[in-house]
Write a structure and sequence with these properties.
alpha/beta, 14 helices, 407 residues, Nucleotidyltransferase, domain 5, two-stranded parallel sheet, elongated
Amino acid sequence: MSQLSDADDARLRHQAVILFREGQPAPEIAARLHHSRRWVYHWVAFQRQHPHTHFHAASRAPRHHPNRLSAQMVYRIVQLRHTLQRQRRPIGARTIHHALEERHLRPCPSPSTIQRVLQRQGLTQGAMETQAAYRPHPPAAYPNAVQATDIVTRWLKGGAVVQTFTTVDHFTNAAYATSYAHKDWPATRTHLLKTWEFLGLPDLSQFDNESAFSGGRYAAHLSPLIRLCLYVGSEVVFTPEYEADYNWQVETFNNFWAHQFWNKHRFTHRGYIPRAQLHFLQWYDAQYVAPRLTGTPRQLRRGAVLYPLSRRLAKQIPDALPICKGRVHAIRRVAADGYVKFLQQPYRVGKRYHGKYVWLTLETAQQTLTVWYQVQAQADWVNLRTFPYALDEPVRPVPKEFRRLHR
């Protein structure tokens, strides 16, 4: 309705009230103004309740938004996040979602909604300035050039925790997953050995900065995961801190995995998961075609030279792993003070590179840490600085049986 028609309606309503007060009957007023008697009585009563009204129509916009999160729920999410942080527990959206479900709050917001609340409140660890900066990625021009691994935490009915390790090959989108009760080093080692038996050994293994991967809070410490990858001849790269979208290949698989597997099963015990998990992975490998790809993972890997890790070689890998010759990489965003962290140890790059991404490479044989910078894709790499990186134990060569399994 236009403003002119609304003004005309307001004038007629006002005229009806004036005529009624002058003593004219409601039926005559209704006939004169071409409205019903009910309309006349309605506006007369309305004017008595609202003596200062202008008789204009009120807004019809909804005053209640059923999907809007209440202020009380936002307060609970924020307070619960602070409580988990004081208890030194995980503070992610999934953990908060599970804690809200344990408190039987209805309706319980989804993890994505909780994540948006945390971002608006500035409580996400990735709340850094988002200026445009080029992020280098490791090239994946053939199968097993790069394999990315991630951990997803889920809770079964009854409160049991399931830690699912997923690994995705960047080139073919082939994937493998295993589930455990904990995300400690024994579970990580078992998953990687099974993955390499199924997918083959990668030339580069990509991980986020989860303590199970990077080694925790100890500075200049090569974690058992790094030692294992170097032992089998694979390089290691750690993604930028608090930037899950960098690891988008495995994150995309995790979302697909959640919808097609977890949402279709209701497990009450961890022992029921492996069999259903195996059936899903077999279907995924043989029939699923990922977006932007031309075939299933099995079709894309057909004819490629793969080097699966045999069980015989896996049993020869010692529990106490030495440091072998190889390279460990990390992509880091330079902080405002010009520093970056590599394995919990700070290194100065320079304030002029604030907000830019640099590529750090540790050469275990030379015991040096080199900082590289690339302005944009296809540009030449620039060596910014090289630091000594002393290791407190001898560096050994990669065993021959693993060295020959790489290009």
